[in-house]
C-alpha cells in the first residue's frame, strides 16, 4: 500500500499589520514630516533662546557700564565728573570770568 499525502497551501497572513502600518506611514507621510520639522524648529528655537538669554544680560550690563564709564568722564578727588572735561580744568576760560 502506498500512502498519499494531501498538501494544501495556505497563505500566511500573519504580517498584515506591518502592511497596515506601512500604508499608514505612506498615507500620512507629509503630516509626520511636517510634525518632525516643526518639533525640530521649536527645539532649535529653544536652544537659541537658552544661548541668547545670558548674552542679552551681559550686553545690558556692558551698556550700563558704558554709560557709567563715558569717554568724557573725569575722576577728580574721588568724584565722578560728567560733561565737558575742559570745564573742570583750572585754566578754562569760558568768557564769563570777566563779569565778576
Describe, in short, the structure shown.
With 100 residues, the protein is mainly alpha-helical. Helix content is 52%, strand content 6%. It has helices spanning 16-27, 29-68, and strands at 74-76, 79-81.
Structural class: mainly alpha
Q: Helix proportion of residues, in percent? A: 40-55%
Q: How is the biggest beta sheet arranged?
A: 2 strands, antiparallel
Provide the low-confidence segments as ranges: none
Q: Which outline best applies?
A: rod-shaped
User: Could you tell me the number of beta strands?
Assistant: 2
Number of domains: 1
Percent of residues in beta strands: 5-15%
Mean pLDDT: 77
Helix count, DSSP H or I runs of 4 or more residues: 2
Give me the strand/helix succession. Answer: HHEE
Radius of gyration: 41 Å
**Gap between N and C termini:** 148 Å
Give an overview of the whole structure.
This protein has two helices and two strands; from the N terminus they run ααββ. By secondary structure, the chain is mainly alpha-helical. It has one domain (16-94). The mean pLDDT is 77.
For this entry, give a set of tags:
2 helices, mainly alpha, two-stranded antiparallel sheet, 52% helix, rod-shaped, 2 strands, 100 residues
Walk me through the topology.
Layout: H1 16-27, H2 29-68, E1 74-76, E2 79-81
Antiparallel strand pairs: 1-2
